């Protein structure tokens, strides 16, 4: 397979047999002149951060856990959701690069699904200085060659290996991801009006399909029709109204 | 660059006028003043002190302040404690919409509390916006006088978060 190479993303690499969290390590070296694009890779992540208590389940050497350091200082403060758009889109494109036929989608805002099961989690942590976005740590956990999951996760989580019956080389996967993310990042930096969000929507799970959601305490029909600048989900209701939802205000059914 | 006195004059002018927004641009300096009008039935009440908006995002020859230091005016707005009047207070405002967190987790120590002295670059809070976690660093040195938002509450863009007495 052709291996594109990135100009700066992932060119500086720090590789660890084991780390508590690659994002935490990235944060600890931020202030020491770390070059943009630095990649921190751990073969075994012992305390991968997820939202609140959701620690990321990882099989050593089967999962891919890494963080990238970006300096997206061109992004206006109200546009930071574009970071979510570009990182999730880069992951979808990377999976498609290896498996063009696989149905990979983004579950709003930033989970990556294959056949409705999560194969990748993204955790973005930014620092701000003087009212401006200063650094961004992009944390990625991919179930690449994971062969099994604990029973309680089997309905919700899967791996690229389980979905395709093929092993994927982790270095090749990282290289492709870095070059795709870098292209999206530079495109957005050079042309802020690029159609990044349209592409994000195009990869969004249940986009423009009538589906069941729960909001305001009731299960009801809705159709995802977009996301606003801040990343809120725009849902059209059966009454032809458009409602905007924050994360905790809506549940997929 | 304008001096502080002219800025104060502009603020006074705006607060006395009917204007809600004023933008002044010079060669290398841009000032934007925005003010929220009180409810219509409260027109007789003293206006809230006008708030300085942040300087433009573009690269500038000087560091962009979040909000300029304000000497709490005698007829200060209701959110800043009037007891602090005269002191050099800095109102730290939220750069984004999101949820305000005082610690990095439920079982973690708070980043800062009232009475703490903070230095430049010290983390004041985290604002979570749609799963993006934003560590907000202080750009000033001083003492935390007041924390204006409760933990895990939603905050708007430009909403005052901390009152810091500049050292």
Overview of the molecule:
The complex is a heterodimer of chains A (253) and B (167). Chain A is an alpha+beta fold. Chain A is 23% helix and 29% strand. Chain A is built from 5 helices and 12 strands. In chain A, the strands form 2 sheets. A 7-stranded mixed β-sheet of chain A has the order 1-2-3-7-6-5-4, with helices on both faces. Chain A has a 5-stranded antiparallel β-sheet with strand order 11-10-9-8-12, with no helix packed on it. In chain A, strand 4 and strand 5 (111-114) form a beta hairpin. The longest helix of chain A is centred in the last third of the chain and has 21 residues, at 170-190. Chain B has 2 domains: 4-44, no CATH class; 89-166, OB fold (Dihydrolipoamide Acetyltransferase, E2P), CATH 2.40.50. Chain B has one helix at residues 4-16, and strands at residues 21-26, 29-34, 51-52, 70-71, 88-93, 98-101, 117-118, 123-129, 132-137, 142-147, 153-155, 160-166. At the A-B interface, helix 2 and strand 6 of A face strand 9 of B.
């Amino acid at each position: 397979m052709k291996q594109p190479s990135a100009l700066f993303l992932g060119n500086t690499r720090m590789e660890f047999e084991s780390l508590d969290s690659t994002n935490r390590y990235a944060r600890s070296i931020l202030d020491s002149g770390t070059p943009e694009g630095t990649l921190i890779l751990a073969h075994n992540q012992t305390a991968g951060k997820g939202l609140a208590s959701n620690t990321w389940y990882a099989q050593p050497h089967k999962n891919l856990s890494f963080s990238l350091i970006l300096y997206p200082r061109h992004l206006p403060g109200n546009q930071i959701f574009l970071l979510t758009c570009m990182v999730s889109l880069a992951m979808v494109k990377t999976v498609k690069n290896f498996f063009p036929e696989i149905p990979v989608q983004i579950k709003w805002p930033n989970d990556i699904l294959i056949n409705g099961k999560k194969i990748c989690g993204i955790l973005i942590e930014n620092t701000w200085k003087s009212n401006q976005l200063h650094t961004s740590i992009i944390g990625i956990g991919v179930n690449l060659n994971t062969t099994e999951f604990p029973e309680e996760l089997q309905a919700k989580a899967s791996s690229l290996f389980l979905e395709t019956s093929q092993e994927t080389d982790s270095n090749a996967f990282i290289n492709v991801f870095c070059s795709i993310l870098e292209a999206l990042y530079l495109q957005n930096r050079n042309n802020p009006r690029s159609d990044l969000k349209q592409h994000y929507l195009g990869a969004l799970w249940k986009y423009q399909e009538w589906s069941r959601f729960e909001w305001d305490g009731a299960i009801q029909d809705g159709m995802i029709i977009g996301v606003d600048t801040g990343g809120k989900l725009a849902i059209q209701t059966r009454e032809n109204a458009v409602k905007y939802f924050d994360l905790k205000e809506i549940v997929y059914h | 660059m304008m001096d502080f006195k002219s800025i104060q004059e502009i603020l006074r002018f705006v607060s006395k006028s009917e204007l809600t927004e004023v933008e002044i641009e010079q060669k290398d300096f841009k000032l934007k003043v925005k003010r929220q009008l009180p409810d219509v039935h409260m027109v007789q009440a003293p206006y809230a002190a006008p708030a300085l908006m942040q300087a433009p995002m573009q690269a500038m020859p000087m560091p962009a302040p979040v909000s300029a230091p304000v000497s709490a005016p005698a007829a200060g707005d209701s959110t800043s404690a009037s007891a602090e009047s005269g002191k050099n207070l800095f109102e730290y405002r939220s750069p984004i919409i999101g949820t305000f967190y005082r610690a990095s987790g439920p079982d973690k120590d708070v980043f800062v509390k009232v009475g703490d002295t903070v230095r430049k670059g010290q983390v004041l809070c985290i604002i979570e916006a749609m799963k993006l976690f934003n560590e907000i660093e202080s750009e000033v040195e001083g003492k935390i006088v007041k924390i204006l938002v409760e933990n895990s509450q939603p905050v708007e863009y430009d909403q005052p978060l901390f009152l810091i007495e500049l050292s």
